[in-house]
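The material for today's practical consists of a large collection of protein records. Getting from the letters to the tokens is the skill we practise here. To make this concrete, we reproduce a full record directly below:
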Amino acid sequence: MPSDHQPPGPGLPPDLPGPPPCHEGTLIVGASQAGLQLAVALRQAGDTSPLLLVGEEPYAPYQRPPLSKEYLAGELAPEALAFRTPAFYAEQGIELLTGERVTSVGLSGGRGTAHTATGRTLGFARLALTVGAAPRRLDVPGTGLDGVLTLRDRDDAARLRERLADARRVVIVGGGFIGLETAAAARARDKDVTVVEAGPRLMGRAVAPAVSAAYRAAHERRGTRVLLSTAV
């Protein structure tokens, strides 16, 4: 795996000995696109108070849509995923703390405090949660076996890209946008691909039936098998 982990942002050294600094500004939990955009919007609106953006992943905020497309296909370098350069955060006065999971928040005497899994304590006057979603694993035997992967973050995509290099047959559970993009990337590498969808059509919660049918036909023309109304 690449080791280009982002260091903590300006004003947050790797170790915080002694009492934690008092943070009177906004704490944004979730170094996602939403979290970054909120920080940028606050600055554009004239907010000059401290801004601290905390993320569980070891990377600065990055684009997720390419993970199932260009990045998975090996057409995009990891550094190209980043939304902003390190200099941008310094220029905007946005402190970035990566590799930290916030485990609890609380209020006492009108002041807010957040605690992280590594023992950091972060104070805040305002709190925003931009934590996003998590992939749902199947509740069936065997989901912990080697080769059963999910696709949500950059590390997931890197693992999947590595495993695709040697895979011959690929089964994708879920016929939504991400599943179909992954199927297309696998077929482009000449893999034997099957998409298993529990619903009666592809992308059933997102597009009209005619669009579902068109996408199914397009994937089948390219050699992907599509199994509808099929549960694992």
Notes: Confidence is low (pLDDT under 50) at residues 1-22.
